[in-house]
Specification:
Blueprint (H helix, E strand, L loop, with lengths): L29 E3 L9 H5 L7 E4 L15 E4 L5 H8 L8 E5 L1 H8 L2 H4 L4 H17 L4 E7 L15 E6 L6 E3 L9 E3 L5 E5 L10 E2 L13 E7 L2
Parallel strand pairs: 2-3
Antiparallel strand pairs: 1-2, 3-9, 4-5, 5-11, 6-9, 6-11, 7-8, 7-10
Helix pairs in contact: 3-5
Length: 235
């Protein structure tokens, strides 16, 4: 499994899609976790340190923090148009999971086919195309493996990205969950906001990273909404 030092460079030459949410000018607030840099005591070791280093912001510029070697996850807590939320929350379909592999242009062509567009809300498919393009710009144009699915009915396990970088976005009531340390049984589990885009770095085998999982359906039967998972395929 690639180490975090093998991350592809982030490109500054990205042109936003006409369908992408526009960022409002003004002050920009960045939120950043500051995990312990080392395990100082046996008590700290029992808590599962080191915790993942996370940077979050509502502005798309936060993706540039992926260049920092000390950051494990970047969260773009974007604000989307109200029409997006209305379109997704009012959707009650249950299509088969969509799995695609290829370059961003190939994925865009596939998502434009009538057979695919019949199963999913157009706003989600358009967003997948835009995020695939952004993901390609951030990773140097390597192949991508994309899954668009409804979350499992049972609780999913925590995992690390299988390759250099993973993108996760939830459309609906909630997003993916991530753990505040390396032991989900004792760590604080937080959920990403709907439409927030998380970029999670892969790590070498045996190294600490950002453990995360897909959200499960609520006990009352409410579904979290579709989930997009996008991974680099560098091997």
């Amino acid at each position: 499994m690639p180490s975090s030092a093998q991350q592809h460079p982030v490109s500054m030459n990205m042109t936003p899609s006409a369908n992408a949410p526009r960022e409002s000018p003004g002050a920009v607030l960045f939120m950043e976790s500051w995990p312990a840099s080392k395990i100082d005591t046996p008590e700290d070791a029992a808590l599962g340190y080191p915790a993942p280093h996370v940077v979050a912001c509502a502005h798309a510029a936060v993706v540039m923090d992926l260049q920092r070697p000390d950051v494990d996850m970047v969260v773009w807590g974007r604000r989307v148009p109200a029409a997006w939320e209305k379109s997704v929350t009012g959707w009650s379909g249950s299509p088969s999971p969509l799995t695609l592999s290829g370059m961003p242009s190939e994925i865009a062509d596939c998502l434009a086919t009538p057979a695919v567009r019949q199963g999913w809300p157009p706003v989600i498919l358009t967003d997948v195309v835009d995020l695939s393009s952004l993901f390609g710009a951030l990773t140097g144009g390597v192949r991508q493996h994309i899954r668009l699915m409804t979350p499992p009915s049972s609780e999913a396990i925590f995992e690390l990205p299988p390759d250099v970088l993973r993108l996760i976005c939830g459309y609906g009531r909630t997003g993916a969950e991530w753990c505040g340390n390396q032991d989900p049984k004792s760590g604080i589990v937080s959920a990403l906001s709907p439409f927030a885009v998380a970029f999670i770095k892969g790590v070498a085998e045996g190294e600490a990273g950002c453990l995360h999982r897909l959200p499960a359906s609520a006990p009352n039967g409410a579904r979290p909404g579709p989930i997009l998972v996008m991974d680099t395929v560098s091997r």
